Amino acid sequence: MTPLRGSSLHGRTAALALALVAAFAAPGARAQGKAVYDQACGVCHNAGIVGAPKLGDAKAWEPRIKQGVPALYAVALGGKGGMPARGGNLNLSDTQVKSAVDYIVSQAKVRATTAVASAPPAAAPAPATRTAAAVASTPAAQSPPASALPTSAAQPPAAPAATAPTDPPASSVAKFAPGPTTVAAAVPVRAPVSGAQANAFNRLLRPPAQRNLPPAEDGIHDPANDGTQLLQPPLEAFGALPRSNAGNRVDWVKALAETRIQPRVDRVDPKAEAVVMDLNIVREVKGSMPDVVYPHKQHTEWLDCSNCHPAIFVPQKGANQISMAGILLGEKCGVCHGKVAFPVSECRLCHSKPKPTAATAAPAR
Amino acid sequence: MNPADRYVPRRRPRTRLAVALFAIVAAVLSALAPDAGAEYGDVVINNYSDGAGMRPVVFPHWFHRVRYRCKVCHADLGFQFKAGGNQINMVKIIDGQFCGGCHNGDIAWSVENCNLCHSGKPGTLTQVHESTTSQIASPPARVTAK
User: Fold this and answer.
1) pTM for this predicted structure
2) B138/A301 touch (CB, cutoff 8 Å), yes or no
3) Nearest CB neighbour to B141, from listed A43, A47, A181
4) Neighbours of A352 (CB within 10 A)
5) Which CATH number is A15's domain given?
6) Do A147 and A39 belong to one domain?
7) B116 to chain A nearest CA, in Å?
8) Are residues A7 and A141 in the same domain?
9) Which DSSP symbol is given to A215?
10) Regarding the domain with residue range B43-137, which homologous superfamily does it belong to in the CATH classification?
């Protein structure tokens, strides 16, 4: 099987595997816990970023689980050290966060069982852990801990170095961060890995998604909904616009500057004009990366001063702590970049001012 | 990952092909990645929809930013920069708040077109799609042979 072809099947099969597991072993709660985990917790807990205990690492979890599941709920909801309240996703309800904790606990136990009894009966671990998780989740279900005030505990983890290397290459596009380890644990039947598959060319790089898919094929719209068929496919709109290499693959700055689009500045008045301020702020960057030039011009074309000041940035040069780790987690510039404005993979759009002392590494000879 | 995955099997006959390959492929799942390729910046809003038996709402940023600057929504209409962070519901909309500031049959088509907004796959969680966190690589599956 070629990696490319295989990869598109993986997704479906994975989904199927998950569905099978969900159907046989743990309907509802378990599936939700996993979904929440993958969305909000896996970024750190899959790889152990900023010191997060890894999913399924029984050793790391055992002492924590011993404190009792309610204590884990409390930390997951309220935060602790590098662990932001609700994993930094304040939208999650108490129930969702708890279901993710239950899932984490169940995975630690599955792994532990597997490690001790090296050949567990195929389907045994899952139901057992489900019961454990279900029991554990009932008593604490209604009591958010006093420390659950989300904002106070949600601090950025202080380890930029840990997150930086996990940056995707600029060419990686449009695929979801999966929680693969969880599949391994969740699938009761284990098939052998053939050598060819173990040495797949791209082990971590997710296959390039087809880009700018029409709504009915994009995976989030329901193709069975009649309204979906009426929605505009992105490529129909993007055809006339200057392209870029990431995000929507549209250069929105250029599209606006060349008046290929004329987005309104006012809800009703098509003639209102933007209040544009041309002020560049240079932020010096330690190390080899070029300094960051923050341009007010391109931003005030789209945004109001109040969108950034003072909630995201104190309006004073150098008064704000900004780091790449924070940006990757959706703070500061990352509030928009990596969400709606061009993504973080486009390093040079921000890091645009070469160092005065050419710090560029000379090729080793 | 996209939680909508859970719903994949019941919607596609193509999964049968996958069934055939299940035993082989399950071992090498390097990803739970759905073959979803949501458009960058699409926001699914699902605080209440699933609970109310409606499909989740999908808000396309790209479509709206062709027509409006960010400030119109995020400053003038008061949308917070937070998927699901605005407690939007239908009463607010018909009273002219949030989406209702425009989807009022005057500036843009009106609220009767339920299915244009409520167009998401049931069960899709509230989130902004294709964001940074979905780009960060996770470790591949370590599956031991049987």
Assistant:
1) 0.71
2) no
3) A181
4) 15
5) 1.10.760.10
6) yes
7) 5
8) yes
9) G
10) Cytochrome C3 (3.90.10.10)
State pLDDT tens for residues B55-84: 999 999 999 999 999 999 999 999 999 999
DSSP letters spanning A94-143: HHHHHHHHHHHHHHHHHHHHHHHSSS--TTSHHHHHHHHHHHHHTTTTT-
Interface test with A, best of B10, B12, B39 (most A CBs within 10 A): B39
φ/ψ of residue A170, rounded to 5: -55, -25
DSSP state of A164: G
Distance, in Å, from the CA atom of A233 to the CA atom of A228, rounded to the nearest integer, reads: 10
**Packing angle between helix A3-24 and helix B15-25, nearest 10 degrees?**
90
Residues 6 or more apart whose CB falls under 8 angstroms from that of B53 comprise none
- Quote the DSSP letter at residue A221: B
The verdict on A6 and A128 lying in the same domain is yes
Q: Which of A168, A87, A90, A177 is nearest to A343 (CA)?
A: A168
Q: Can you say whether the dihedral through the CA atoms of A299, A300, A303, A306 is positive or negative? A: positive
**pLDDT surpasses 50 at A133:** no
Chain B residues near residue A226 by CB distance under 8 angstroms: 115
The per-residue pLDDT of chain B, averaged, comes to: 77
Instruction: Specify the DSSP element, H or E, that contains B57.
Output: strand B57-59
Would you tell me which residues 12-51 of chain B have a C-beta closer than 8 angstroms to some C-beta of chain A? Answer: 12, 14-15, 17-19, 21-42, 44, 47
Closest partner CB to A206 (pick from B17, B31, B144): B31
Put simply, the answer to whether B2 touches A228 (Cβ < 8 Å) is no
Name which of A226, A301, A339 is nearest B41 (Cβ-Cβ).
A339
Q: Which of B69, B124, B139 lies closest to A265 in CB terms?
A: B69
Range of the domain at A90: 2-176
The pLDDT tens digits for A195-226 are: 666 888 888 777 666 789 999 999 999 999 99
Better-scored residue on pLDDT, A267 or A199: A267
Please give the DSSP secondary-structure letter assigned to residue A280: E
Q: Give me the number of domains chain A comprises.
A: 2
